[in-house]
Amino acid sequence: MTPLSGRALATVALAAALVGCGAGQGGGQTPPARSAYTAPPAHPATGPVRPLGRSVPVGLRVPAIGVDTPVMRLGLAADGTVEVPPVTDDDRAGWYRHSPTPGQVGPSVILGHVTVGSHGDGVFRHLARLHRGDRIEARLENGTEARFTVTAVRTVAKADFPTGDVYGDVDVDGPELRLITCGGPRTGEEYRDNVIVFAALDPAGPAPS
């Protein structure tokens, strides 16, 4: 994946700061503790990681928080910002199709809502509860799974969204995954923060789905 230009990163940052905030009534999210950022390791120190071939994600499982969702494809909106999944009662996650597919070298980005308007809780409502070492499984179009391990969970103010760390690949030398939603205190229909989960591909090869 070619590193994003400064202008492209700025555009993505604006969109990312808005991700996961379904408008209207519905369940909220318990504000997680805010902490100073510690850069996540590039990959777990359990052995070499072999990148996977390109295959679009069609599903996502996060057992620790009960997520098992189809994954749709997201692109760019007419204004150049990143699309987000629609606010519907069958809420699902969405993969940003201008990022690598899960298992390719670089940060693969999957977005989800924390609330979905009058429909209630979103698919990523408990994302902030993840911890380092938790597992994430991306089901791929080719019938295999890319299995990841969480390396870090960050809650950041939207104004300080770390665009380069999330979407850029300058300092990423292996296959990684980013899950993004909203979090922190809520005022009306807006959340103050973003929750970002960083994960790295497990050293073992792809597993049958």
Put the structure in a nutshell.
This protein is mainly beta.
Secondary structure elements and pairings:
Layout: H1 6-16, E1 57-62, E2 67-74, E3 93-96, E4 106-111, E5 135-140, E6 144-157, H2 163-167, E7 175-187, E8 190-201, E9 207-208
Parallel strand pairs: 2-3, 4-7
Antiparallel strand pairs: 1-2, 1-5, 3-4, 5-6, 6-8, 6-9, 7-8
Question: How would you portray this structure in words?
Answer:
This protein is mainly beta. It has a single domain (6-27, 51-208), classed as Sortase, Chain: A, CATH 2.40.260. Helices cover 8% and strands 34% of the residues. Strands 1-2-3-4-7-8-6-5 form an eight-stranded mixed β-barrel. The chain is globular. The two termini are 26 Å apart.
* Largest sheet descriptor: 8 strands, mixed, barrel
CATH architecture: Beta Barrel
| Share in β-strands | 25-35%
Helicity, in percent?
under 10%
Tally of alpha and pi helices: 2
The SS-based structural class is mainly beta
CATH homologous group name: Sortase
Arithmetic mean pLDDT: 79
Order of strands side by side in the largest beta sheet? Answer: 1-2-3-4-7-8-6-5
Shape: globular
Strand tally is 9
Question: Could you list the spans in which at least 5 consecutive residues all have pLDDT below 50?
Answer: 1-11, 22-46
Q: Spell out the helices and strands N to C.
A: HEEEEEEHEEE
CATH topology annotation? Sortase, Chain: A
CATH class division: Mainly Beta
Radius of gyration: 16 Å
Distance from first to last alpha carbon? 26 Å
